[in-house]
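Help needed: design a sequence for this.
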């Protein structure tokens, strides 16, 4: 049977994995990419990583950083029982997302807010903020210029300007949006140095955590922008607009950046999806180990693809739910295969250089 996993490692990560395998205490950073329903294809991998591998004792923080659904995944890991949080999140995402034929942004916002509340449960916020070693970083995009407007016509114009400028250089995105990271790491965040785009840092609190997570997944024109308590007057949008797959400088630490991802490639920003020359070249992934579903695994999924937002429009609700649940069930194979590679000491043999 063909492998269900694709594993790629930057040079420092490859050397570390060849020396001593994959150990929880060697992992410094765990990124989570944007991608909406694509997270369902990683369910089994996340269950193994979050519930088994990364639960081993550790003596230093594990920095979790995500945008959009990636931040929701990281919020699951930062709860006391991450597997239960994942189960709540998967169920809510599959079965609680019911919309009218042409939902307004208000309707979509209300549905996603309920899904987020289910994922967090009654005590998730406090568990995240008091976690002994998990430090959550939530990437949002603060609207600037026309993108600070909640009026559809002005917002559309702002996004069009951002997309046009992005063709020339990613830094032009700062004219319409600024990266804002809400995190629980205090002064020890490894992302304080980020300078590829203007970046501000705000402490996560009981008052702003839910709003920050909701904002991180608020796709402009589909979901309402979010006003986050304790921040200057303004509106915050999906962090994936700026940081789609998190092509970030992860810092100069000696440990691993463990990156469970939907794909074997990384797209920097949402506007870069169709720009093949913008795929990350690996400079930021020197110490990263990327673990993704293989092409063979994806080909065997319902429809031969990973779930995505287009499924809402392309199939009846009951069929979408059935397919998405089938993907979650099939994804158990990803966690099983990684567990076996670690148990047999064959992980390094399966990893290809980035």
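Sure. Designed sequence:
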């Amino acid at each position: 049977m063909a492998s269900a996993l694709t594993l790629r490692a930057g040079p420092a990560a490859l050397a570390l994995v060849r020396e001593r395998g994959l150990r929880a205490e060697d992992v410094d950073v765990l990124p989570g990419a944007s991608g909406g329903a694509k997270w369902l294809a990683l369910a089994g991998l996340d269950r193994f990583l979050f519930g088994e591998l990364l639960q081993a004792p550790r003596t230093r923080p594990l920095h979790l950083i995500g945008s959009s659904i990636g931040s929701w995944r990281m919020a699951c890991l930062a709860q006391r029982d991450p597997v239960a949080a994942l189960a709540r999140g998967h169920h809510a995402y599959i079965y609680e997302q019911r919309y009218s034929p042409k939902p307004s942004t208000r309707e979509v916002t209300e549905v996603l807010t309920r899904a987020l509340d289910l994922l967090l449960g009654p005590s998730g916020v406090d568990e995240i903020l008091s976690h002994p070693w998990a430090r959550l970083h939530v990437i949002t995009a603060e609207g600037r210029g026309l993108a600070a407007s909640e009026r559809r016509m002005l917002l559309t114009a702002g996004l069009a300007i951002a997309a046009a400028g992005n063709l020339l250089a990613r830094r032009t995105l700062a004219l319409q949006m600024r990266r804002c990271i809400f995190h629980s790491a205090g002064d020890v965040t490894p992302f304080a140095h980020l300078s590829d785009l203007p970046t501000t840092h705000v402490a996560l609190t009981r008052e702003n955590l839910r709003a920050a997570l909701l904002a991180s997944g608020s796709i402009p024109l589909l979901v309402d922008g979010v006003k986050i308590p304790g921040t200057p007057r303004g509106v915050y949008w999906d962090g994936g607009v700026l940081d789609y797959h998190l092509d970030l400088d992860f810092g100069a630490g000696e440990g691993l950046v463990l990156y469970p991802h939907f794909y074997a490639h990384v797209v920097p920003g949402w506007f870069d999806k169709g720009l093949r020359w913008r795929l990350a070249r690996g400079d930021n992934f020197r110490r990263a180990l990327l673990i993704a579903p293989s092409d063979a695994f994806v080909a065997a999924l319902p429809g031969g693809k990973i779930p995505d937002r287009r499924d809402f429009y392309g199939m009846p609700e009951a069929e979408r739910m059935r397919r998405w649940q089938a993907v979650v069930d099939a994804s158990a194979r990803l966690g099983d295969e990684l567990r076996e590679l670690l148990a047999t000491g064959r992980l390094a043999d399966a990893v290809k250089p980035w």
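The CA atoms of residues 163 and 342 lie 43 Å apart.
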